[in-house]
UniProtKB/TrEMBL annotation:
InterPro entries: AB_hydrolase_1 (IPR000073), AB_hydrolase_4_sf (IPR050960), AB_hydrolase_fold (IPR029058). It comes from the Eukaryota. GO terms for biological process: medium-chain fatty acid biosynthetic process; medium-chain fatty acid catabolic process. This is AB hydrolase-1 domain-containing protein. Belongs to the AB hydrolase superfamily. AB hydrolase 4 family. Residues 98-328 form the AB hydrolase-1 domain. It comes from Ceriporiopsis subvermispora (strain B) (White-rot fungus). One of its GO terms (molecular function) is acetylesterase activity.
Length: 431
């Protein structure tokens, strides 16, 4: 019955594809092992040829028919026994002294939406996967990563991803790098790719449920009772728990405002996200400048990613849902940039996109298919443009880039083998 209802509504849920009026062309192989001359395709043609799932309907499970239900299932669903991924963790110390070990607001490598992509990507070819390496960069303090400086993370701070990519590029100099970001991580990845422009070390990027206009999202979350009570407070609750986990370390930085801030934020009773950001993130969400900001709204205005879309210079796919209760604006004009494509589904919620499985009562994530197709095409079919990238070198033990010696990273002791769902009790998943 569920599958039948889903089928009846499928015609309404074909993803909509949006591209800029100005076209950009990429070179691609006819097929991964083709000896023929490469073809020249517009981004639209490239996606039609390489990502056929985006031309097929998304059929949400009939019992998850709204964005609220799709999003809620991300939190309450049990994904512990599917898409199992195990990691060998490397801890990186950045120049400012923080350990960084790339997700949503308070998630990490353990999240089900991360594993849903990494499982088929990293599964060996002989077992039906792509056989690629997968690397997740966890934000400071998330997924069991220690905090060793008063600086935290935010929707706009990109240096941690930047230096992590330097480390990866130096460790695997011949590997093609593809960036995938989820929710808050999607915002950070978008800004990073735009800031790097023609020098970006990634061959392609893909973001899911990006918040885009962080000012508008904040207003929606705070000005509507349901969004404020359910989503805003749930996200703030997760952030409070992260601060509590690292209270001893953060309160020890007595020469930084964060030492008092942690006391203030833990004293808040059921805060909203803007209250948390007004107390903590505007002060400690990145390096100075631009931090600290006068208010959370000032921080949101700075962190927005929709305004940087015109600066992207690699093939870039963004997938969003119209009924996402957390994301209120989707920049369907693609920033006027031919490198950018947006795929928008009518349903799917925030990082949900659950469809009915053939097994009764089970679900699959529809999003897995188009994202894996995009990754495979970017690794095997795309012929990236030659990039003028600056040399990476070691300075005082830190991997850094010529001309950017103020930031960098080096490996430190710790890490070890991590099973994807370990040590994350107490936080609401899927956010």
């Amino acid at each position: 019955m569920g599958s039948f209802l889903s089928f009846l509504t499928a015609t309404y849920y074909l993803p909509k594809l949006y591209f800029a009026d100005s076209q950009v062309y990429v070179r691609a192989k006819v097929s991964p092992n083709s000896e023929k001359d490469p073809v020249r395709l517009s981004l639209h043609e490239y996606i039609v040829n390489k990502c056929p799932s985006l031309l097929k309907p998304f059929r949400p499970a009939w019992w998850l028919y709204s964005g609220h239900l799709q999003t809620g299932y991300c939190v309450v669903g049990d994904f512990s026994q599917i898409d199992k991924v195990e990691y060998d963790r490397t801890l990186l110390r950045t120049v400012d002294g923080v350990v960084v070990v790339l997700h949503g607001l308070t998630g990490g490598s353990h999240e089900a939406y991360v594993r849903a992509i990494l499982a088929p990507v990293c599964t060996p070819v002989e077992q039906g996967g792509l056989g690629y390496r997968g690397i997740v960069v966890n934000f400071r303090g998330c997924a069991g990563v220690p905090i060793t400086s008063p600086q935290l993370y935010s929707a706009g701070h990109t240096d941690d991803i930047r230096v992590a990519i330097w480390h990866i590029a130096r460790r695997y100099p011949r590997a093609r790098l593809i960036g995938v970001g989820f929710s808050l991580g999607a915002n950070v990845l978008t800004r990073y790719i735009a800031e790097e422009g023609i020098h970006c070390r990634l061959a392609a990027g893909c973001v899911l449920a990006c918040p885009w206009d962080t000012v508008m999202n904040s207003e929606q979350l705070e000005n509507h009772w349901l969004h404020r009570t359910v989503y805003s407070k749930a996200m703030a609750q997760n952030l409070q728990k992260l601060i509590r986990r690292h209270f001893t370390a953060l309160s020890g930085f007595t020469d930084h405002p964060v030492s008092q801030t942690v006391h203030d934020v833990l004293a808040l009773k059921s805060p909203t996200l803007v209250q948390f950001d007004d107390t903590v993130t505007r002060l400690a969400g990145g390096s100075s400048p631009p931090f600290p900001f006068a208010t959370a709204r000032d921080y949101y205005a700075w962190a927005a990613s929709d305004k940087v879309l015109p600066d992207i210079r690699i093939p870039f796919l963004a997938i969003s849902s119209e009924d996402d209760p957390i994301v209120q604006l989707i920049p369907v004009d693609a920033g006027g940039n031919g490198f950018v494509a947006l795929a928008v589904t009518k349903k799917g919620g925030h990082l949900g996109w659950f469809e009915a499985d053939q097994r009764f009562g089970r679900v699959n994530r529809w999003i897995r298919r188009p994202v894996v197709e995009w990754i495979r095409a970017a690794c095997e079919d795309l012929i990236p443009e030659e990039r003028d990238r600056k040399e990476l070198h070691i300075l005082d033990g830190f991997v850094t880039e010529v001309g950017r010696e103020g930031i960098g990273c080096k490996e430190v002791a710790g890490g070890g083998h991590v099973v994807g769902v370990e040590d994350e009790e107490g936080l609401l998943a899927g956010l």
